[in-house]
Fold these 3 entries.
Entry 1:
Amino acid sequence: MTPTQARSAGASQPAPPQKLVVIGAGMASGRLLEELAKLAPEKYEVTLFGAEKWGNYNRIMLSPVLSGEKQFDEIITHDADWYAAQGINCRFGETIVKIDRKTKRVISNRGATHYDKLVIATGSASFFIPVAGNDLPGVVGFRDHDDVERMLEAAQKPDGKAVVIGGGLLGLEAAAALHARGMKVTVLHLMGHLMERQLDPTAGYLLKKELEGRGIRVVCNAHTNAIVGDGKAEAVLLEDNATHEADLVVMAVGIRPETRLGVDSGLETNRGIVVDDHMRTSDPDIMAIGECVEHNETVFGLVAPLYDMAKVAAKQLAGPSEAGFSYGETPTKLKVTGINLYSVGDFSDGPDREEIVLRDATKGMYKRVVLRDNRIVGAVLYGDVSDGPWYYDMIQQSTDVSEMRETLIFGQAHQGGGGFDPIEAVAALSDDAEICGCNGVCKGDIVAAIGAHDLTTLDEVRAHTKASASCGNCTGLVENLMAATLGDAFSANAVKSMCGCTELTHGDVRRLIKAKELKSIPAVMQELEWSTSGGCAKCRPALNYYLLADWPGEYVDDQQSRFINERVHANIQKDGTYSVIPRMWGGMTNAAELRAIADVVDKFEIPTVHVTGGQRIDLLGVKKEDLPAVWSDLNDAGMVSGHAYAKGLRTVKTCVGKDWCRFGTQDSTGLGVRLEKFLWGSWAPHKIKLAVTGCPRNCAEATCKDIGVICVDSGYEIHYAGAAGLHIQGTTKLTTVATEDEVMEIAAAIVQMYREQGHYLERIYKWAERIGHDTVRAAILDDPEGRRAYYDRFVFSQQFAQTDPWSERVSGVDKHEFKPMATLELEPAE
Amino acid sequence: MNAMTNIWTPVGQLSDIPRQGARCVRHGDTKIAVFRTSDDRVFALEDQCPHKNGPLSQGIVHDRGVTCPLHNWVISLETGTAMGADEGETRTYPVKVEGDTIMVAL
């Protein structure tokens, strides 16, 4: 419409009242009628249909009603008196079953009503996940007054148990409220972290920690399989067979726009009833607003855009209007007393994005502001949300923040403050000021040691003074002191940090994971104040390993933080195919295995077969889709994964020993097989290769391995820390023992010590060089109890690691890895 | 030749792809890698690193990039260009998610 037309139409005389019918008496229609009453009170004769028994109430305040912080009466926004005062004919409790667009009538169970203009505001319904038992009594949504009533009834039962399915905004509010009502509450959430639409993983982790601290159980990655019970809900079963008892099951996984009337009457409908910028449906006399609509391929669940729709629709109804609906970012706050959480805008990462992160682990505080072109596009705040509105305002105003970048993250109160130089601050301390509380080291001690021993690195200062060598919290202080003492001679980065996401070194991170009992990647990133929100391809695999090594049986391996070879248990080749290497224990094989390998090569047309330096057979050029079938055939012949891709035990190379060789002194093959069968499985910082050779002629080349055993007449020489790759280095001899059992114990103890102390991608020789051979000898040889403890911890870890990954995948684990998501046929060109 | 009009083609469900993971779609002779980030954004690239044709779908997905499994080039999921000091570009495809269904413009 042109402006001229708009003006002339707006100036026309008031017509006799038209008939306006509104279907749905929820928040959107409440706001619409309010606006319309202001703009054009005389223009329409309004009839309002609502399926519930009362008028509009503030649905988002149902959580406080559920928790007992409010009464239902308090949240009713439009009562019968208000509608009466506006002259609105209310037909509550009456359901519209059909819209007849030809005759312009809506049909209810009590008859037909004519309309000139119709507004559909039917809202949405709780989405019930399609599992068996979702219709049992005791399974409720969290949507309306009746749902709350049903939940309150269930909460009457002493020690009642509630399971909330869905860890989004609504689910968590329901969980907190039911917990406040005295129920034992478990939240089952499909995703890896809570409220994934509003929060990044770190904030999700903090929220989970807080809820668990309150006594609410939270299970992430929970795939619901069924709800079971005899005549009513009694338990929720997960796909991993975990069972959660429940007297009440709350479905809070999402909402489904209520589009039935639109669909039945032939209006254009996708996920919601499709509307244009003026809230008009495909029928010019029918408008739709609220959660039932779809605008620009988006559906809506938060209240702010619904109110905007209502205003636009009211203007349209009042007279021609050019006001169109558009929506900006809506901030989200969780309405749970005592939890401060705020998110707004787009806080995802991207190459054109920059982020500023502030973490305060002790206060449990996390702030993240995402910038694009020096403008804030999103923010996530946890703990301290006081600056949320300030950031939101700057998002809306598109404020250029380049002037205040340095202090932006500290909030509005810190703008324009003075500078602070931490190095000057530490230089100003007195000599007897304590720097390291754990080890009682004063500033004077450190300065003196630096001077006396020409120390230039943090590790050296730690070695000489023990400052920051325990919990590590004073590392920054020690570094600043070194900078103040050494000036330019000191560079804090002399010991390289793990990656660009943190200032901490691998050693720091390993120590702190144990000291602070950090048990997940988000926990490490939050508590150790990572500067990025989600890490990078360098730190994530390292953290995944450290957590796996430090918390065996507890930490769940994060597949997406693994390199492809470890994810699919094969080695990627330059053309994208894979190589497959089955184990040949100690380099031994037989006719049946060789025959099976030959059959697999023929069956899958494997182009290359190669004998490796680790005494086994490599099948090269296997297509990824074929991997499970190849493994299945090899498994059938008794062969398992050779872990040729693993940071862990690869091979134990042997010679034939005294069984055959005229020089052989011991059963080197037997010992090699025994070592390989004992050591395979657990992940390590890097690959581990062993060899057992039957005599000092060393045919198995044991003296360039991570651990090498040389059999001699009197027993077994144990060597370690050799290398034969980029770097060539002979092994260092540890000791000679008399029995195979002693070899087993020492080898396992070394591997475990390395697993606990090694930095990710650091081979055993590098690790030994770093900590010193004397340290290794002292731990492994001079301290039998300590050695035994290492051995025991290794054995413990192995019980979670010694599962053949091939047979697991043959039986269906990670099947998404091995086949394309879709295969699309191309239409022939014409 | 056919007109190069893009047709939104459903290729699977969002839940088919693990977070910070990828799946392949075969489209005739072309392999397309469809990525899902930790915040559920979905991107599609030709499954070929501009460096040595490494299968990007097999890489580690982080932020808005994927690290190629062959030589650790990092390719932007949004633009298909190599990040950092490397230079090169991989073809991108428009993607949208409707409900749980992933649609790629082919």
Entry 2:
Amino acid sequence: MSINVKVRVGTEWVNDFHKDACQQNDLSYCDDQVNGFYDHMGSHGHIKVFDWGDDNAWETDFRHPDFGGDSLNWSDDVHICMVNDHGGNSNNIISFFFSKAHTNCSVPSTKMRLGKKNLKWLAALGCDAVLNTNADHIVAVWGGPMQGVHIVCGYIGTAADAWWTRNLGADFADDICDGHTIAGSWVSDAYSFWTGDKSIAIAAGVSQDDAVNRRENENLNWRDWDVPATNWLAWKYRT
Amino acid sequence: MAEIKVTAKLISTPKKPANIYRLSPPRVNERSVRVLARQFGMRPDAKSGRFCSDADKVTYAEQHLELAASRASGGVRLIDRSRWQVDDRKSDLRIEDAAARRLATNVIKKYKLARTAEMKFFKASRLRVGVATRNGEEASERTIDVAIAMQRMVDKIPVDGPGGKIVVYLDHEGNLTGFEMIWREISGVHRRKQAHRSPQRAIEEMAAHFKTKQGIIEVQEVRYGYFEDDRHTDQRYLQPAYIIFGMLGSPDGGSPKRTIYVAPALVNPVGGITPPLKRKSAQKPRPSAR
């Protein structure tokens, strides 16, 4: 199936963390995954809007203005956003961690309003998009932050930071630009028999049928088919 | 500098010398894909099919079937786009690993993908779908496919890494929906009966690799096997390796992430395996406001 729309693309990644309150163990390959995605989306004709790395990646880019953030000018001003850094999940709240405080070292999902403006698809490549696959946990983590975004992609538990998964972003971009479904491509590309990465994609819908339909069929051509209310979530994972 | 902590019980150094093999450069073009398509029951001479070629791969599509071959590795993927990983909204697959493995083996035999004596069962993975209201009500889950990974064996040594596997996908009725295969052809012995170095030396190599990074790497598992790379890589030699699985942590207990480092296992290997970390180019400071 051919893709008939152009989408705006934004990416953020963090490899090296400051040795201060923001200290985390350094990572090495977040840029490879994300830049592969960014460049391949661009080579398929989509619009490269921003690619912020290390100290240029800020938590305010994901924090909604209701909480003092600037998400509507960044993560929520593109159609598809990929972020790759440390992720952590506690009490059904996922946080993304950044290299230095701007304004904070991390942003929790309680301060995200994903899809309030333009964001349709989010790929969070850090750990712990969910900790397990219990329905109660999945909806508790993502039912609140998904406020217009169509599909969120991530990992169950920890993810690998390794040379051997460096092509993930490029592969995902190629697949979705080739007309494959967003959720199916993610689950297929990000799962690894070898590294142990377990992938999950979560679709929002106004009804059960809507959420399931998006999970099974949505591709980039669905850009303008809005989710007016996140009443249902439908997910797909390989484990 | 990253601190290395070994919490795994290290495997002992293999005593039996091992060979390094040369791999045949893959020849992936329209003609070779046409041959593969026939092998898999497609009709590449019919007008209904179409070839598509780019720098990475050659693809042949016929109705719902899509066959792709990677230029760098010769890796192959055949999927039925109408059924591969697709939910029919009702099925719930219940199949034991042993039964799934038998079905996968039959597929491998039918299409002559590899000799079954040269492989062993690696893992079965299930694709699950679920749905619930935003409040967690009316939740349900089902299994819609099973993927069976068979691992290559060379000289009775497992082939580890992203390659060296055939993955067979079966739907809720046990029917084939697709398979993936990265299985480079061996052309001959490059170095015969080479001695091994110790796993500890491989861990020291990993420490040097991450010397510019801060944090702690906890080594949780070290495996031994021939290493076969992914479909994107032009790999010329198949050599034994230690595969080190680690967990990245920080002194104050920050968020973990896993890492994998692969080091040659022989005293006299053919080059390194994990490429050196690339030097990062400095970024321009970001403007404070858009």
Entry 3:
Amino acid sequence: MNIVVLLKQVPDTTEMKIDKERGTLIRTGVPTITNPDDLSGLEIALRLKEQNGAKITCVTMGPPQAESMLRELYAMGADECILISDGKFGGADTWATSNTLSAALSSIPFDLIIAGRQAIDGDTAQVGPQTAEKLNIPQITYVDEVIALTDKKIKVKKSLESTYEIIEADLPCLITTLSSAAKPRYMHVKKIHEAFAKEIRLITFNDIDIDPSIIGLKGSPTKVKKTFTKEVHKNCDVLVLEPRESARKIFETLLDNNYIGK
Amino acid sequence: MNFDLNATQALSLKLFKEFAEKEVQPIAAEIDEQERFPEETVAKMAEIGMMGIPFPIEEGGSGGDTLTYVMAVEELSRHCGTTGVILSAHTSLACNPIHSFGTEEQKEKYLIPLANGSKLGAFGLTEPNAGSDSAMQQTVAVNEGNHYRVNGSKIFITNGGYADLFIIFAMTDKSKGTRGISAFILEKGTEGFTIGKTEHKLGIKGSSTTELIFKDVLVSKENLLGQEGKGFKIAMNTLDGGRIGIAAQALGIAQGALDEAVKYTKERTQFGRSISSFQNSQFKIAELQTKIDAARLLTYRAACLKDKGAPFTTEAAMAKLYASDIAMESTRESIQLLGGYGYTREYPVERMYRDAKITEIYEGTSEVQKMVIAGSILK
């Protein structure tokens, strides 16, 4: 069983600040982390490997700095790590990214692809599903639990807002996982020492068969016209009322503004 | 001279920081309050390869170095001195002598399970009448052919109540003084070997500090560590390494207390301004961080010398002497910066203050460290 996990190195958005004048993110000095949903995907893969045996290949697309993330993934238990990196791939939106990923995946054996639901920097939740479409394989999104995995099929629990579905699909298949699906394990000290001796396979533009017009910034249909931070308007009405009257006022305000229905 | 961590050390440090923040900090106050040995943390450390950091993979370890191990003890102690000393006593005092002096069979049988964390280790040298004067061993081991018959007792043994394996010292020939001391590997549950009184302490309350009692304990000849009569040398060599671990513990406690003080002074407002804006706070913080960094450099230097295979006895003594002193100063001054709140259990600095004191006492008191340092200068 070959399991491919798609992961992305992202800025730690909890430490992110915004340049209000230019409307851009201030990336300098912001630590990078592995996208949390993706780590949950790796943890699911590692558990499946422990149960059934499998080879886990971690794949990321990004700048050369993403190597530091891949070393950590080795230290958590990945068998092979692949970095898809080339200046020509840079600035890609989700469509161009999934074009590149699906082309690169044609040279990587897989029975199951696991991607995180969405990345904390872009929050689109599009790359996983688009990649499945382009590979022409079934996809199950928002997976909270893998119930069973055989050589032929996968059965999962898919979480929806107030309910869940049990879905079975034929392999090969792509699933996207939620952070809640599995708490990622720590790295192992011994594996940290082994991680730096392992090879990271680099896939560049020349290694894949792809039309240059559908990759990178130029191949991205998304055009960012303007980025800005939402202004927060604080108009506070301070009312001093008796408790009963306060409750009534709060209720009426919520009702009038359609926060609650009649 | 190079002050940069290599890639493996840097990534290991990242792991230790994350582990200590998520697994150690949340229960630190509770294990202190309840005087509870954190068995669950030890199990988690074993799972990620922290119980044998500086030993080769074929000996059950993680293939790291002393500096990586030191950073692990430091990061644990930053949040919990108890957890720091559990790892330090296990690694430096139990695993290390077997790694350095054990036979292949002893390594196979005892070091592998210790270093992979499936067993916990302890070290028994101190006796009621053999503290700093550790040559005054009254525990005796009589050679009876295939085994030794051990009688006596040990006190203040770290990890005592929870360890599976013990490195113990006993007189095999009283007439030879220190050259009559031998070291043995003793398994929990051996007939006649019992755990005595558990100490209630000022600090590191979650760590298990006990008495060991030997009543006609038969120890097989295969469990003699090193040669007969070489026990004192083994003990001293082991304590040299142990002192780097305790220096790291002290360093972690010192940094942990200052971290709290920095956070608090930024949040606390008095006289209409943040107390971090007062020069008194600023100067105190500046002095403490400078001293902590100096302690860190001394500790890391001793670790790097050990890793190089160079002599490190004096440097380890300096590291422990200074780091334990700074642990006392940093915890005391951090309480002062927190004022009345610092004196309460609402904040962790009072615990850190109590935890710091032992670092001036065990594995050689500060006075013993000065004897070691002066001895090397005035020889």
